[in-house]
Structure formats: C-alpha cells, structure tokens
Amino acid sequence: MLNLIAWVILGLLAGAIAKALYPGNQGGGILGTIILGIIGSFLGGSVYSLLTTGSLQITAAGLSIPGLIVAIIGAMIAIFIWGLMTRNTTV
Q1: Which spans in 1-91 are helix H?
Q2: pLDDT of residue 89
Q3: Are 74 and 40 in contact (CB under 8 A)?
Q4: Could you tell me if 72 and 18 are in contact, meaning their C-beta atoms sit under 8 angstroms apart?
Q5: Which of 2, 12, 36, 76 has its CA 20 to 30 A from that of 85?
Q6: How sure is the predictor about 36, in pLDDT bands with cuts at 50, 70 and 90?
Q7: What is the average pLDDT across 4-10?
Q8: CA–CA separation, 89 and 34 (whole Å)
C-alpha cells in the first residue's frame, strides 16, 4: 500500500512538473497528470536502467530527487508520444 501511495505522489509531482515544462497545451485534469506521471516514472526508470546496466528492465523511478528527475523526463517523453497519437492532422 505504501508503494502505491509513493507512486501516486511521484506521478503527481512528475506529471505536474513535466506539464509545466513542456510547451503547449496538453489538456487533461489532475487524474491525467497523475497517470501521465506514473507512466513517465516507469518509462524513465526503464530507460535509465537500460542506459546504466545495458539491459531493459521494467522498473519505476524511486521517490527521491534523482528518481523525480528521471520520472519528469519520462513524463515529458510520454507527453510527446501522447501528442503524436492524438494530434489533429486535418489540413
């Protein structure tokens, strides 16, 4: 239960900071921000694991300053991917 609360807190912080740093309007409310931050935490943690160990492991960033930075970067990548999937392509 404690891990779940830590992931929600990390997700909220990472998602909110990533949305503030990422240019443009991303939409979504508080729930979207939390989900985006949690996805970013897993994405960032997995990429960090790949870069440091050379093997891809599905892992979340921890609730620490370096973990928050990795989660923010992952959340910004998730915002970018979400924007590519949902953008309007009418000309």
Answers
A1: 2-21, 30-53, 65-86
A2: 62
A3: yes
A4: yes
A5: 12
A6: confident
A7: 74
A8: 27
Q: What mean pLDDT, rounded, does the chain reach?
A: 77
Closest alpha carbon to 21 in 62, 65, 63, 79: 79
Token digits of residue 29: 């409310």
Q: Which residue, 54, 67, 60, is CA-closest to 13?
A: 67
What is each CA distance from 22 to 13, 54, 76, 84, in whole angstroms?
A: 14, 28, 7, 14
pLDDT tens readout for residues 57-88: 766 666 778 778 888 888 888 888 887 887 76
pTM of the entire structure? 0.75
Distances (CA, A) of 82 to 1, 21, 52, 64: 29, 16, 26, 26
Q: What are 28's two structure tokens? A: 């979504």
Length of the chain: 91
Q: Looking at the predicted structure, is the pLDDT value of residue 46 above 60?
A: yes
